[in-house]
Every structure is written in structure tokens, then in C-alpha cells.
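Repro case for the chain-ordering regression, as requested:
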Amino acid sequence: MNSKSIIERLPYDKPFLFVDEIHEVSEERIHGSFTFREDLDFYHGHFKELPVTPGVILIECCAQIGLVCLAIFIMEDSISNTTMALSSSEMEFYQAVKPGERVEVVSRKLYFRFGKLKCEVKMYNADKNLVCKGQIAGMLKPVSDG
Amino acid sequence: MENSPRYDDLLKIIQPYLPEDITPNQVGPKSHFVEELNINSAHLVDIVLDVEDKYDIVLENEDMDQMQTVDQAIELIQKKLAAK
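-- result from build under test --
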């Protein structure tokens, strides 16, 4: 499965899609990137007069690339009637991400069992400096019809 | 059953995943993990993984469906240990 077909299967869309491209993916590991465009709405309020990407959005970006895209790759076709809910995150932050910055996310699978995917994720900025790192986990949930 | 070492061991495994409003003495053999103890599905997986490590057994997806209460978990562990 290639980058485009993984992203097409994501259950997100603008303004809440935080994946541009998947560069590398295997059963164990995924590497993707996203550019935080300057016109994203939350910059108007976070913070007043000082636009910085919110930490929760960085976690979301890590989760979309590191958990959901990886789960889509691993599950392939059997994922069609499921979605993934974030179940835990333990992150540490090192650098701020300013409007217009491109980030890369690298995620390594710790385990994927009984529908729970747990990964160790790291986000880097364009200078290859660590933005944040930690462990996040998600649970596959069946989507009800209608 | 309540005094058997296995029950105590399981209680120790469950304890870190109990929500703050549930105290360990509210846990009994008939306690339902999700409905009574308010353990979420992700933590139920953690409990299963800890049980596997503790007893050196492997549980399958079907096993997970059958382990909804403390008693059922103990029964399942005993069955898996016996089959080893």
C-alpha cells in the first residue's frame, strides 16, 4: 500500500487532517510528514499575537501519522469498518512549531494486540531537531452503520 | 477462591488500571471489568498483556471476549496454565 492510498483511507479531512505524505512504512515503523500552513485557524487564538502550534495538535499529528496510518497499513482491507480512538498519550515537548513549519514524524510499533496499537513516536522539525517524543496508543473501534 | 494466591496476583495486576473512583476493596470475584470497575477497553488490553507476562501464557482474541469478570479471568488463566 502506497502513501496516497493510506492517506485516502484516513477518516480525517481539512481542517483536521495532519498528514501530507508517508515516506516509509513497514509493519514495524512509519515515517511521514506534514506542513503546518500559516493560514490554519487555530493560529488566530493560540496565542493572541503569538502564533504557535498547540501541543495537542502536535500530538494529533503524531497520532494520525504514527498510529492511524500505521494501523491502516498493517490492517489493509480489514480496517474498512473500523476507526481508531486515541487511548493514551505520554509526550514531552522540546521545541515550538511556528506557522509554516514542516515536521516529520517517525513512529515505531511497540505492540499491536487485541486492537490496541501502542507506539513510540518522535517528531522533528526541518532542522532535524526533536520537537516532541513519547508513547501514544489507540484502540480500533468498529464503526456502527448509518 | 478469594484467598487463593492467584486472586491476589490478579488484583495486583488490575490495581494500576482502576479509575480513581474505584478502590481495590470494591473489587470482588464477580466484578465486571468494564461495567462495574469502569476499566476502559485499552486498559483491559494492558491487563491481558500483564497477565500474559506474569503467567507466561498467550491469550487469543476469543479469550479476551470470555474474560469479562475477575472470576472469568482466573478461570481462563488456570485453563491456559493447565494446557501448557
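Ordering looks correct now. The helical segments of chain A are 3-8, 55-75.
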